[in-house]
Amino acid sequence: MAHPTAPSLGKDLLALEDLTGEQILSILDTAETFKEISVRPIKKVPALRNRTIVNAFFENSTRTRVSFEFAEKRMGADTVSISTTGSSVQKGETLVDTARNLEAMGVDMVVIRHSSSGSARFLAERIPSNVVNAGDGKHEHPTQGLLDLLTIRDHRGPIDKLKVCIVGDVLHSRVARSNIWGLRRLGAQVAVCGPRTLLPPAIEEMGVTVFRRVEEAIEWADVLNVLRLQLERMTGGFIPSLREYNRVFGVTRARIESAPRNVLVLHPGPMNRGVEIDSDVADGPQSVILQQVTNGVAVRMAVLYLLSGHAPETAEAAKRGGDA
Amino acid sequence: MRPLLIRGGRVIDPTQGLDAVLDLYLRDGAVAELGEGLAYEGAEVVDASGLVVAPGLIDVHVHLREPGGEHKETISSGARAAAAGGFTSIVAMPNTSPPIDSPASVGFVVAEGQRAGAARVYPSGCITVGQMGEQLTEFGELVHAGAVCVTDDGRPVSSAGVMRLALEYAQTFDLPVAVHAEELTLSRGGSMNEGIVATRLGLTGIPNAAEDVMIARDLMLAELTGGRLHVQHVSTRGGVELIREARARGVRVSAEASPHHFTLTDAAVELYRTDAKMNPPLRSEADRDAVRRGVADGTLDVIATDHAPHHYDEKEQAFEDAPNGIVGLETALGLSYTELVATGLIDLATLVERMSCAPARAMSIRGGTLKRGQPADVTLIDPNAEWTVDPRTFLSLSRNTPFRGRALRCRAVRTIVGGRTVWEAAP
């Protein structure tokens, strides 16, 4: 599956905006190869043996952190996870100090999650280790974007034929930005839909269509990526109430059933059931939400594998246990 | 002090409509004579051939960080940096820690400025006690202690009622009220200009309207009260337009353009460059062009740096956490010449008007002219100098500039304050 001429990813994975369509496809193809590892009785290959990886999570995230940890362990890496609670960051250490300490410890790779946009790039510019952005502020969450792409491709085939609409709080969403870049790089038509208060200014200049009404979006789309309404941010008065949001923008069964074709539904989680998505959609036949989680591990394995200097075409050998 | 005879320079003094090769004689701290073929025994003669002889440049918007931020800048280091940039007078902003809101703290700035012995340092005082936007400071006492204007710079006066009172009360002393125009409920959480760059970078933007709304409000209040309004660091096309219209109606308003706002756009923030983080933020190309046109037609009659020094480790943070501002004293003249004069937008006399004469008028401070009997504050400028910005050479204690490595034309070669050379370029 791997693209024989795929260009290398370079030192870091910071943003899908930085990648070409070819690079993205090479990650997806490598992930496709690695999927099988997760269903074996012994879920381990030595592809990243002797590599040390630090998961630096300066912002809470159970699911992304665990997904990275699984990916790292299945590839045989030595890993350490640090989180904000109890870390020196709470004692006032700056990001640059954190970077210097990581560098001094000779870490091979750093997976960083941080509440500030640009923090992954900040770190990457200051340390020689490979840096993977696991979500920086409202900027990007590239591995989430990649796993969404993989899941969409699994179910709908080549991305370039598709119309994908991102519904919900695009303003605060790093997933949305990664999705927009990733989908557009692969040739999809992309739209966003949500109340204007939750759409970033000038979003149209990223090459997306804007729908004001969710009914129009659903009628147009082959795929809906439903974003979480970040309840902790809603104190800013972006919407009048959760109830009204569900009434006006909620992805409900009635709306899905009125669509002219079978719409694929994604959600990066965690979901607010009954707010942005109804349970019978989340658990319904169109939903591929749990498969996104499964694909997340494979995508992260692929990213770590490729960033550590391995070529995409060696993925098959690595999967068979060869010390690639 | 030995008298100074500056011989054969191109003397540009817009207050006298002068642009001619002349000699300038300075004695006892004042301009004594201006003419051709002057000769005075005992005077130190300065050969100014090929140079422009201008009334000393004046920067009405400078942050000196003392008290409270002496690791970024002191009154002394700031005054020396000003002199190295060709400025003979600067107005220090009062948003220090604690803020300059009492006669004693104004007096402190005056005394430290005199001690520095470089550019003249004029204090400004806060509009409101502690810059809290509620209670007016003792304007009369502040003026008595040496303040030349009041401002809550760094913050707006959010209450329109308080702002009205400030503009009314300041008239007792014919005191300009300088404003940082920002409607905080519109700019909240913002760290750069609102637009596609902010959207792509995932940063919250500050819309033009956050500035325009406050400029409109303050112009209306200046019109209502008849007070003297000075709008600081105008960055939006809407702001320029509002000021242009208000001045045409007779509103008493002066306004600043900062070199970074007429040079850069928000594209300078790409890759999260904190050296380009400032407030008001770098705006769009249309805004930058409007600021340029505003300088050209005199709507923005004053060029001011908003010199905002920060220690390197304070800027070396994630973008949203880094403080706002760049240093400007030592790049202002070069940037202004390169961006405005060398491009043909304004002539050299207009540049002198915007950087010397108009600032003196806006703050009612002496200088900004070479008329006989006026202070012997003079800047000698080499308009043909070509140089590259190297922050390591700055006399400011801070290095935070987005102009590192930028090739510029024109720089000051000698700065004379009260007839005394306070800075001279290395030969």
Question: How would you describe the overall organization of this protein?
Answer:
With 324 residues, chain A is an alpha/beta fold. In chain A, 36% of the residues lie in helices and 14% in strands. Chain A has helices at 21-34, 62-74, 95-104, 119-124, 142-156, 174-185, 214-220, 242-249, 253-257, 279-282, 289-307, 315-319, and strands at residues 52-57, 78-83, 109-114, 130-136, 163-167, 189-193, 209-211, 223-226, 264-266. The model of chain A has no long low-confidence stretch (mean pLDDT 92). In chain B, helix 1 (75-84) packs across helix 2. With 427 residues, chain B is α/β, with parallel strands linked by helices. Chain B is built from 13 helices and 18 strands. Chain B has helices spanning 75-84, 103-116, 139-145, 160-169, 184-187, 196-201, 208-225, 237-248, 259-263, 285-297, 312-315, 332-341, 348-363, and strands at 4-13, 18-27, 30-35, 44-47, 52-55, 57-62, 87-92, 120-123, 150-151, 177-179, 192-193, 205-206, 229-231, 253-257, 302-303, 378-388, 407-417, 420-424. In chain B, the strands form 4 sheets. In chain B, strands 1, 2, 3, 4, 5, 16, 17 and 18 form an 8-stranded mixed β-sheet that branches. In chain B, strands 9-10-13-14-15 form a 5-stranded parallel β-sheet. In chain B, strands 6-7-8 form a 3-stranded parallel β-sheet.
Give the tally of β-strands of chain A: 9
Distance between the termini of chain A: 17 Å
Average pLDDT of chain A, to the nearest integer?
Answer: 92
Q: Report the biggest beta sheet of chain B as strand number plus sense, adding barrel if it closes.
A: 8 strands, mixed
The helical percent of chain A reads: 25-40%
Total helices of chain A: the number is 12
- Give the C-alpha Rg of chain B: 20 Å
Quaternary organization: heterodimer
* H/I helix tally of chain B: 13
Largest interface (CB < 8 Å): A-B, 24 and 21 residues
State the shape of chain B. globular
